[in-house]
Amino acid sequence: MTQVMVNFRMEKELKEDMEKTCKEMGMSMTTAFTIFAKKVSREGRIPFEVCTDPFYSKENIEELKRRIALIESGEAIMVEHDLIEE
Hints:
Helices cover 51% and strands 0% of the residues. It is mainly α. It has a domain at 12-43. It is elongated, with a radius of gyration of 22 Å.
């Protein structure tokens, strides 16, 4: 089977983290991406759920901005509490 070169960009730290993780699993990044490509081709879908982080929803960002404004204006009531450990 003829092979081709595929190039794309990602953040340097992400690449280094992925290389390390792949090495720990005994494979190269090329092998990992080949596995991904074969699964996408076979299933006709991304083989995992892709969704946004709810922390960054419009409603949550607006609430965070509101709370920051209260803190900056001195109107917020700050209450000391113990940390919750999970």
